[in-house]
Amino acid sequence: MAAPPASRLERLAPRLIGAVAAIAMSPVAWAAATVAGGQGAGTRQPMDFGAPIGESLARERKEPQDGNPERARDAVSDGSAPEPQLLSALDGKAAIFDSYMLAQGMEGITIDTSRFERPDIVAPGKYRVELQVNGQWRGTEDIEFRQVAGRESAQACYDRDLLTRAGIDLNKSARGQDPQRPPNPMPEGLVCADIGNYVPGAELKFDQSEQTIYLSVPQYYLRLTTSKNYVDPQSWDSGVPALLLNYSTNIFTTQSQAHNTTQAYAGLNLGANLGPLRLRHNGSVTWAPRTGTRYQRGYIYAQTDLPALRSQLLVGESSTSGELFDPVSFRGAQIFSDDRMLPETQRYYAPVVRGTAGSNARVSVHQRGFLVYETTVAPGPFEINDLQVASYGGDLHVTVTEANGQARTFLVPFATTAQLLRPGVTRYSVTAGRASDLSLQGSGQYIVQGTVQHGINNMVTGYGGVAFASNYASGLLGGALNTPFGGFGADVTWARATVPNGDSLRGSSFRVSYSKNLPNSGTNFSLLAYRYSTRGYLGLRDALMLHDAVERGAAPDSFARMRSRVDANISQQLGARGGSVYLNGSSLQYWNRRGQALSFTLGYSNQWRGNTYSVSVQRVQNAGGGGALYGGASSGNSTLVSLNLSIPLGKSARGAPVLNTFVTHDDRAGTQVSSGVSGLVDQQGKGSYSLSGTYDDRSNATSGNASINWRLPDVTLGASVGQGKGYRQASASAQGGLVVHPGGVSMAQTLGETIGVVHAADAQGARVGYGGASVDRRGYAIVPSLIPYQLNSIDVDPKGMREDVELKTTSRSVAPRAGSVVMLTYETRRARAVLINSRMPNGELLPFAATAIDAEGGTEIGAVGQGSRLVVRTEKDRGTIRVEWGKKPEERCVIDYTLPARVAGKGRSYEMLDLPCLPMPAGGVGSKKLAARP
């Protein structure tokens, strides 16, 4: 007797079991494939749970040898087909989805899943993807995929900026490696074509499951740098025209028995940007009842960068760097190299590692026991020139592990001084103008100064310079050495000066410096320097001051000339729990002064059970007579001993108050004891407070102080009060910035050198970056600080903005030029979220996962969820939605909707409607013809 036909439930049972297993094992696998099966008659074979889960969840679509597709379905249905493999998103094979798994109810309508059967088919739209170039991560990008004629899948689109961020040298790719091949430069704008057309040999693959684009590019077309943040100079952004203001204001008042005083101060930094030109000026305004209002002008200059020279050009008032010669303020012009324009791996000194590999070998570089770099090299000589290691030094241990497991290790010494540069890197500066130091009371002399430094190899950096004034000339020559014993620097300066009375001074100055980090002992000599100058030597700044003093009638011998100077900065770690001890200071001696000027600090600090304590001794001794460095200070010595103790009052990692106690003893001022509590007002760290009391044994008086600071999105406010024996004090302060840009005026926190202006229309309340800024009612926010000449990614967090506004782009990347104000536009869409409960006129449920399409525009705006509910976002208050679950006319229906009036203020989370989905008449609905789905 023949078996009765299997019921629908019996046919679905294996699918249900498989679905449960798929969900338990892998949500991705469940979504990407299905239990093999069809609708043929007969009973289903049970799922083979002994087989790999991938083999049980997906079936490979294959045509039988006789070309009959029905036979292929039957073969799958009766289990006679060979066991398939789980499909990859990149293998291009097809998967058959079981549409009954998506049906709502035992007899629910199913949807057409054919467009999901090919994992390599990409639907048009914008995707946020990870970008990998030759296996190296290059960041996150928003990539648009467009439908291209002749292709079943949407094509990834790209522009010149994207390829530049990927590290491709577009100049090389346009020429190609074949000189006979005509150049094919990439056009401007968005390109949706095979990338190999413009970068020969390059391939682009998109893995939908990983949301990653894998870009394979021949090494020839890649820039030498591997820094992921480096951007080609052609893509540096000059920004938009803007006016800038930084302000810092403070008002301070004191009331005492003798008198009352009030003083007000406002520090101003002004700027204007026009194209690549930046104008800057700073000054201060002071006010007091007796003196009134005064304005003190600081510097003013115009500056622009020169990308071709990796340099900056400045015209106006500024100061020399003081790296090789004494720093001097000037009014004139200066051109100097800017290391920030170099790739990140070339900005700071690190040696080049060279060696030879006998096979495909793994090269590992360790510094102080930490793995800081690892790569694979081909057989033969290799060179690693992009190390990013600790800038304060520490020898590099290089291990080369061959393919057969054999390893060898060698040492590359690494100790750094300020003068050491990477091999091949050059740093220079040229200044010409008139000296304008505030300490010069007469008319400034004309000066010319030039310096140059060049990294010769791993061991040696050479440097030199010249400086001239009206009655002065000097030359400097030196070098820096990187040795296993540390970093050494040595130079000699020759100088000749003529004073107004006709005397001529000639002399030399010798300087040596040493820097070394000893990781095994925990000792760090960050600076140990000694300079000796002969009796007739004068530095440029001293020569200018002496010339100015003699012109005003002073005797040449009244000016102190330095004989020797010792600088030290040493720290020692005393084991894991022993704390650390440090010593820093300097000692100076003069030719025409007795004694020495001495200043040093010796200290010790440690932690115990979360409590921090430290003790220090500071000694200051003046030689008398002053000179260039000590400004005529009178002779005298002082010693200050300090003891500090900080105890957290709570277990909270952030915001818990801290009890601070300070005891200081000065042999001149006596002993003071201060104790107080400080902490954060809120968990976000926006506000902080401090309460303290102080006892002074010399005056036998006590005083109390309280202060609070609060960081608002656009300004930081502060206030303090204090009271002591015979006085009362109060103050208030405010710091912030202001930017005038093409979109209007925006307030901000204190501005840095390089600034970003975020524009996201209707996104009021959205948070920008990590600085606490938020988008204002006009759609603007300020990013107060960006890093110039490298890639900056600025994210916008939609939390806090209206519910009916959607950010279509939440991240932008930009490489600004120094001092620029760059505009960052984030596309938004003001659309209301609508939840529609809908059914067919006969009460039948809409198919689960059916697509909701705007009937007029033809764009997808949502999908049908469980329970026959649609979740859509629409910009219109009324319209028509077309619901599709197949290609046949009867597999479509339409919903006409009218939304309630918008509520003023914050948008509602969603609107809820109950509407029927009516059969779609031929030719359209009403008088408007429905747009066909693309």
From TrEMBL:
Residues 59-76 have a biased composition (Basic and acidic residues). Residues 1-31 form the signal peptide. Keywords: Cell outer membrane, Fimbrium biogenesis, Membrane, Signal, Transmembrane, Transmembrane beta strand, Transport. Residues 835-901 form the PapC-like C-terminal domain. It comes from the Bacteria. Its main location: membrane. It is found in: Cell outer membrane. One of its GO terms (biological process) is pilus assembly. Residues 59-84 are annotated as: Disordered. GO terms for molecular function: fimbrial usher porin activity. InterPro entries: Fimb_usher, Fimbrial_membr_usher_CS, FimD_plug_dom, PapC-like_C, PapC-like_C_sf, PapC_N, PapC_N_sf. Pfam families: PapC_C, PapC_N, Usher. It is a multi-pass membrane protein. Transmembrane segments: none annotated. Residues 97-250 form the PapC N-terminal domain. The keyword Transport applies. GO terms for cellular component: cell outer membrane. Belongs to the fimbrial export usher family. This is Outer membrane usher protein FIMD.
